[in-house]
């Protein structure tokens, strides 16, 4: 497929209709120039491989709001934000951190629903999360 209607151009492009696959797709909002580098640096700096994160671990979600879970002591804490998401892409604005502190996410579904809400997209809320 050509970039324009001009078949003489050398630039090629491809496009695939994906809407029929939407229910099976997982969208990762990773900026190609920064997030992969940050994940590599996380592993290089800490020795922790992000692939080892277990999303059913409640400590993961507790750490979003509870500073002690991530090792920040209350009296020594100079971290002025309502949630511990400063380094998490798309969850580090004043609006999203305040909303997370009100939402109090307990699982991955809560975070996915929040992400859709904060982007003003339609997110199905049919799952019972009690």
Automatic annotation (TrEMBL):
Residues 36-119 form the DNA polymerase III alpha subunit finger domain. One of its GO terms (biological process) is DNA replication. GO terms for molecular function: 3'-5' exonuclease activity. This is DNA polymerase III alpha subunit finger domain-containing protein.
